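Quick one:
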Amino acid sequence: MDISTYARELGENAKAASRVLRATSRKQRDNALTALAKAIRQDAKAILTANAKDVEEARAQGLSAAMVDRLLLNPSRLEGVAASVADIVHLPDPLGRLLDKRTRKDGLKISRISVPIGVVLFIYESRPNVTIDGAALCLKSGNAVILRGGKESARTNAAFAECVRKALRAAKLPEASAQVVNTPERSLLDILLRDEAHLDLVIPRGGESLIRAVVEKARIPVVKHYKGLCHIYVDKSADPKAAMAIVLNAKVQRPGVCNAMETLLLDSHLKPKVGAALIGALVEKGVEFFGDADSQRLSSAVKPATEESYTTEYLDLKCSVKVVDGVEGAMAHIAHYGTGHTDSVLAKSPAVQKAFKAGVESASVIVNASTRFADGGEYGLGAEVGISTDKLHARGPMGLESLTTYQWVVEGKGHVRK
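Output:
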């Protein structure tokens, strides 16, 4: 099929499906989600077989370890995908919520009600679970969705797409409610990103270059974050034992994700042995450090940092480190180099905690805990749509409510304006 024809049909079919979804009951949408979780479990063998082929090809093509990790599914991860869909069933219905209501003196009633956004386009790399997360959250929130994954996960996405189709048929919903794009052709995206007539929102998930390309080409709103350049500041008042566990978790547990720590900031008044121990523990786990002169004095393993070091999202076992002058120094560093994603302070001092919470503008500010908690599932939002560093509409981990907007409903009895 001609690419322009395919793109037009994707948009037109999604728009038509969105009008159906808008009028569905919570029960019908939840039935689709229950059927989706069941289909994933029933088709687990086929999904994992397809994923193994994708992973094998990705490794052969030299994809980074972080990208391969994002692509990889195993029985545990796949069960987690199915379980997250089942969990969404039990979340409150985001539609039809009364957000505001007032009655004027003349009896005219004015209400503000939550409604679906309409048609959402997901563009993502490597992570095939986004195919399911995106479909599930959009179905729950009454939105039609077009899902365009990367070519590296094509087989896995195709297997997931079959699960989605089964679920929609079981719930008697239009199959165009959730469409998985079946071609890696980039020109298709260029057309979709200009389709203001049918698409209402774009959510890109992937590397900075992908997201910037989408923003530059799109004529429709884009919800995004460019980098997850997450900082952890260790104050002199921090509990050393807790700090050790937190920084290890934030950097090493899963370094290839956007909420992993990329820069460690150490208070200049922190005991040198504590700072050295933190760096040493991470080095033992294979982390390569780049830091300033003061941090190099704490450990010979720290290599000299450049200006670029503090602007780099490594997504790997690499980390920047810097000694700063207290919480004010930490906040100044974050203000200059941060990307508004997630930043954490480790401190017992209430004054330091208060200053950090008030002075850091990131979408997620964390106190005495790992940056790895900046996640829709961990925040109780269900499966995550993505993370936004924008300040309008959606911020931080995005869940169901982020996929709704509102409309004004005005009810009168023959009222006319004088």
